[in-house]
């Protein structure tokens, strides 16, 4: 479990196919790499990954993780180049302050940055995502973008009903301490929606479907 408060920005130091050729090993350089133990969970751009017990090859100041085929299909991690920057957060301790929101590290889908607007020393970003997730996004609600806990400013659905969107504001601290300062239109991003909202929608799903089927 994580909070969406990025602990450090790391760098992809190496990429290596897994032995079966289906997955991917990533070496991530991080200031806390030497403190990690095998089996620990680390969120890499919002994706919960497990520290490997043995490094496929030695890389100074780095820890190794493995991305499964499912992870590569759902997230953006497969496209990370060597030298690419990533948001990192270690699992939250029970006695820690919960400054963001509950983030599982289970990415729901990829979104796409469609607009970036300067707002003085802040920045507003509009992100499109599949409309099937639209019930999980609401004004002033929480969403994790690349592992960063953010508050939804506004949201909606396009006229065709196929694509939804939301806007978030990035304050100077977020721009300085995460990779979100690098976002540009057309860039894919990992999205995880609020776990509380997902449970509510799951429980009320049949009722909501009946409402949707009513004549206008």
UniProtKB/TrEMBL annotation:
GO terms for biological process: riboflavin biosynthetic process. Gene3D superfamilies: 2.40.30.20. Catalyzes the dismutation of two molecules of 6,7-dimethyl-8-ribityllumazine, resulting in the formation of riboflavin and 5-amino-6-(D-ribitylamino)uracil. This is Riboflavin synthase. One of its GO terms (molecular function) is riboflavin synthase activity. SUPFAM superfamilies: Riboflavin synthase domain-like. Its EC number is 2.5.1.9. Pathway: Cofactor biosynthesis; riboflavin biosynthesis; riboflavin from 2-hydroxy-3-oxobutyl phosphate and 5-amino-6-(D-ribitylamino)uracil: step 2/2. The gene is ribE. It comes from the Bacteria. Lumazine-binding repeats lie at residues 1-101, 102-204. The keyword Membrane does not apply. Keywords: Repeat, Riboflavin biosynthesis, Transferase. Residues 1-101, 102-204 form the Lumazine-binding domain. The keyword Transferase applies. It catalyses: 2 6,7-dimethyl-8-(1-D-ribityl)lumazine + H(+) = 5-amino-6-(D-ribitylamino)uracil + riboflavin. It comes from Candidatus Hydrogenisulfobacillus filiaventi.
């Amino acid at each position: 479990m994580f909070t969406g408060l990025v602990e450090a920005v790391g760098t992809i130091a190496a990429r290596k196919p897994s032995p079966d050729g289906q997955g991917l090993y990533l070496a991530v350089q991080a200031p806390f790499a030497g403190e990690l133990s095998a089996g620990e969970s680390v969120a890499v751009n919002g994706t919960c990954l497990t520290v490997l017990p043995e490094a496929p090859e030695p890389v100074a100041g780095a820890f190794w993780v493995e991305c499964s085929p499912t992870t590569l299909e759902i997230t953006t991690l497969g496209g990370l180049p060597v030298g690419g920057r990533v948001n990192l957060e270690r699992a939250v301790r029970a006695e820690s302050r919960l400054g963001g929101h509950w983030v599982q590290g289970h990415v729901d889908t990829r979104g796409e940055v469609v607009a970036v607007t300067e707002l003085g020393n802040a920045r507003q970003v509009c992100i499109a995502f599949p409309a099937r997730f639209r019930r999980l996004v609401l004004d002033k609600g929480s969403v994790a973008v690349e592992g960063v806990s953010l508050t939804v400013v506004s949201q909606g659905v396009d006229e065709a009903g196929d694509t939804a969107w939301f806007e978030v504001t990035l304050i100077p601290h977020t721009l300085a301490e995460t990779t979100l300062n690098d976002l540009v239109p057309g860039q894919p991003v990992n999205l995880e929606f609020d776990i509380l909202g997902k449970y509510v929608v799951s429980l009320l799903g049949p009722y909501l479907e009946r409402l949707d089927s009513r004549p206008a």
